[in-house]
Amino acid sequence: MTYVVTDNCIKCKYTDCVEVCPVDCFYEGENMLVIHPDECIDCGVCEPECPADAIKPDTEQGLESWLTVNAEYAAKWPNITSKRDALPDAKEWDGKPNKFAEFFSPEPGEGD
Question: Which of 4, 55, 77, 90 lies 20 to 30 Å (CA to CA) from residue 37?
């Protein structure tokens, strides 16, 4: 089992999760984070830290595509290990459905 970041992270990109991760398995895109599934130790400390409730265990139904997205972009994006400010309009985007198709950016973030 691993944890995955889902579409509610898009355009929010809270980094509270990054700060508590003991193995630094988060990677930063332009407008969201992902978890490297091979680096995640399944400790679960990140899940309750996400203000947007965007982190889920991959054992939940319907998350197969998110496991693929997390694995693909963790290999392309830079590692992030310290907390930063969320995106400026994060609260407005939190909870909006189906953000991936229209708003996902494949561009990398800054990383550390």
Answer: 90
* CA separation, residue 23 to residues 27, 39, 51 (Å): 12, 7, 20
pLDDT truncated to tens, each residue of the chain (112 aa)?
Answer: 799 999 999 999 999 999 999 999 999 999 999 999 999 999 999 999 999 999 999 999 999 999 999 999 999 999 999 999 999 999 999 999 999 999 999 999 999 9
Residues 79 and 103: their CA atoms lie apart, in Å, by 21
- Say if strands 26-28 and 3-5 run parallel, antiparallel, or are unpaired: unpaired
Ordered structural domains, the chain, with CATH? 3-82 (3.30.70.20)
CA-CA distances (angstroms) from residue 110 to 46, 54, 61, 98? 20, 20, 32, 25
